[in-house]
TrEMBL record:
Residues that, per the record, bind Fe(2+): 224, 317
PANTHER family the UniProt entry points to: FERROCHELATASE, FERROCHELATASE, MITOCHONDRIAL
InterPro entries: Ferrochelatase (IPR001015), Ferrochelatase_C (IPR033644), Ferrochelatase_N (IPR033659)
GO cellular component: cytoplasm
Primary residence: cytoplasm
Protein known as: Coproporphyrin III ferrochelatase
Family: Belongs to the ferrochelatase family.
Native source organism of the sequence: Serinibacter arcticus
Catalytic reaction(s) noted: Fe-coproporphyrin III + 2 H(+) = coproporphyrin III + Fe(2+)
Catalytic activity, EC: 4.99.1.9
Pathway annotation from the record: Porphyrin-containing compound metabolism; protoheme biosynthesis
Length: 403
């Protein structure tokens, strides 16, 4: 178990709040690059930005080509990953989850009398982001606020979405017409964390009711592994967040909050990783959940609570890597296992996403924004050098200060 890091800032222009570049494709309020936009912004619509997933066997390889575009990976290697999707009939649940989330957001907005249409587009499969942006522009909705279906800071979970926004606005020729801001990374918003607190509480209660001692329960907070070079560069460089940057620090901080909210004592926990896809020679964040599970019987552990802390819904990495592989690993080593829920369309979570939009609509001061860890509230406008992809360098990215 690790200790939550604290934020320490160097004295620099970036640390003091000054900017060193421009904010691309931004609303007027965000264009000068403040950390937190504390003046009201009149948005025309919400862009729900998803990862995307195949919806049939014939979609699987084309989808994986999209995910790995530019990396030159042959179809033979892609087929090694494709079997996860083929196991479920070639259908990823992620698109259906986003349809449900879009509908839930629309219902919440309507219930609160907020007139903001929701446009949904994906990075890697239909409906694509360019379709959503073009649809919004055609309807006259040109000042957009984006909700990405990812809560944490890293290249793949934040900056890549911002680069896609910039790419789409450039490719569609709408860069001078449409602006796209982005809600802050919401890893420590109470509405997101709520699901995990409740899930761990229910799982531990179930196990103890069945006679498992708290000392024999281990909570495993699982998130997607990423290359260590990406982890190190996650978040802005002027923050001292530990060896593996904001990505690991944010997960550790949230896990500590979840465990502090529990009603029983004596339950240990670990942050673990899953879904590694890189070559063996490339270091990725560890330990892998399956490797750690193998060691637990020797520590007197009888049951594991698997918490998909890095995920907002039950998509493929949850259904395959946790519900199939990690659950099988636990059974093979004589451990009982319970996998807790993801936020999905939990009403508290949906309400929180709308609240994040309203922070920007109302220009809510940072001091009044909810955050359950000492790391937040995170930045509205990403800082210079945030979440670099070392393999490709910095590309134009909306909703952040250059580069």
């Amino acid at each position: 178990m690790s200790t939550q890091p604290t934020v320490s800032e160097h004295t620099s222009a970036a640390a003091s709040g000054a900017t060193t570049g421009e904010v691309l494709f931004a609303s007027a309020a965000a264009s000068t690059g403040p950390r937190h936009v504390e003046v009201p912004t009149a948005y025309d619509g919400i862009l729900l930005a998803g990862f995307g997933g195949p919806e049939g066997q014939e979609d699987v390889i084309p989808f994986l080509r999209n995910v790995t575009r530019g990396r030159g990976i042959p179809d033979e290697r892609l087929e090694e990953v494709a079997h996860h999707y083929r196991h479920f009939g070639g259908v990823s649940p992620i698109n259906e989850h986003n349809r449900e989330l879009k509908a839930a957001l629309e219902a919440e907005l309507a219930a609160r009398g907020i007139d903001l249409p929701v446009y949904w587009g994906n990075r890697n499969w239909a409906p694509y982001l360019n379709e959503a942006v073009e649809q919004a522009e055609a309807a006259g909705d040109r000042t957009l606020i984006a909700i990405a279906t990812s809560a944490y800071s890293s290249f793949s979970s934040c900056r890549q979405y911002r680069e896609d926004f910039a790419r789409v606005l450039t490719e569609t020729g709408l860069g001078g017409t449409v602006t796209i801001d982005k809600v802050r990374p919401f890893f420590d918003h109470p509405a997101f964390v709520h699901t995990f607190i409740e899930g761990v509480r229910d799982a531990v209660a179930t196990l103890t009711a069945d006679g498992v001692a708290t000392s024999a329960i281990r909570v495993l907070f699982s998130t997607h592994s990423i290359p260590t070079v990406d982890a190190t560069r996650s978040g802005p460089s002027f923050l001292e967040l530990g060896e593996h940057g904001a990505y690991e620090a944010q997960h550790l901080a949230v896990a500590e909050v979840v465990m502090a909210a529990q009603e029983v004592e004596g339950v240990a926990w670990n942050l673990v990783y899953q879904s590694r896809s890189g070559p063996p020679t490339q270091p990725w964040l560890e330990p892998d959940i399956n490797d750690l599970i193998e060691t637990l019987p020797g520590e007197g552990v009888e049951a594991v609570v698997i918490v998909p802390l890095g995920f907002v819904s039950d998509h493929m990495e949850v259904m395959w890597d946790l519900d199939e592989e990690a659950t099988e690993s636990a059974a093979e080593h004589g451990l009982r296992s319970i996998r807790t829920p993801t936020p999905g369309i939990d009403p508290t979570y949906v309400t929180g996403l709308v609240d994040l939009v309203l922070e920007r609509v109302n220009g809510t001061p940072a001091a009044q924004r909810p955050a359950v860890t000492e790391l937040g509230p995170w930045f509205d406008v990403c800082r210079p050098g945030c979440c670099e992809n070392i393999r490709a360098g910095f590309k134009p990215a909306a909703a952040g200060v250059v580069p």
